[in-house]
């Protein structure tokens, strides 16, 4: 039961980290790996949570015209404009930066606003976000005994 709760917590914080709420999943990931949880399992759980959180942003982006003026909207107009320009220049491949702080969330909202097809969005974001956790797991494995 303890393992299920720990993994549910990691999933939740990874999900929230990809949405409008400020959260950092790396600390939870590192702590669980240091406690001996299998890195592959942590990568799958965190990658899935973070990817699904980005899907929420894509959905919000699809409704950008309806929600842009709302206080809870996750991305400022300036950030959305910047991400839209970046997205227009680089296209769907810019989603490989969806893991990056500051620009990643805006890119996923912009992808929805610019009507990126769901399946290509999901594939590229899943690759980017999962690779981030793979690199994190490898780094933690290097420094932990």
TrEMBL record:
In terms of domain of life, where is this protein from? Bacteria
Query: So which residues are the signal peptide here?
Result: none
Alphabetical keyword list: Membrane, Transmembrane, Transmembrane helix
TM helices/strands, residue ranges: 37-60, 118-141
InterPro entries membership: DedA_domain, VTT_dom
Residue limits of the VTT domain? 30-140
Q: What is this protein called?
A: DedA family protein
The species is: Stappia indica
């Amino acid at each position: 039961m303890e393992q299920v709760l720990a993994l549910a917590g990691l999933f939740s914080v990874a999900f929230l980290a990809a949405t409008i709420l400020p959260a950092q999943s790396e600390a939870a990931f590192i702590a669980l790996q240091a406690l001996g949880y299998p890195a592959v399992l942590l990568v799958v759980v965190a990658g899935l949570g973070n990817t699904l959180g980005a899907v929420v942003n894509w959905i919000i982006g699809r409704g950008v015209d309806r929600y842009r003026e709302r206080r809870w909207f996750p991305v400022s107009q300036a950030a959305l404009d910047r991400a839209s320009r970046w997205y227009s220049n680089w296209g769907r491949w810019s989603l490989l930066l969806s893991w990056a702080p500051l620009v990643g969330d805006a890119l996923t909202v912009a992808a929805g606003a610019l009507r990126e097809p769901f399946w290509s969005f999901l594939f590229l974001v899943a690759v980017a976000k999962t690779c981030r956790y793979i690199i994190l797991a490898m780094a933690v494995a290097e420094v932990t005994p």
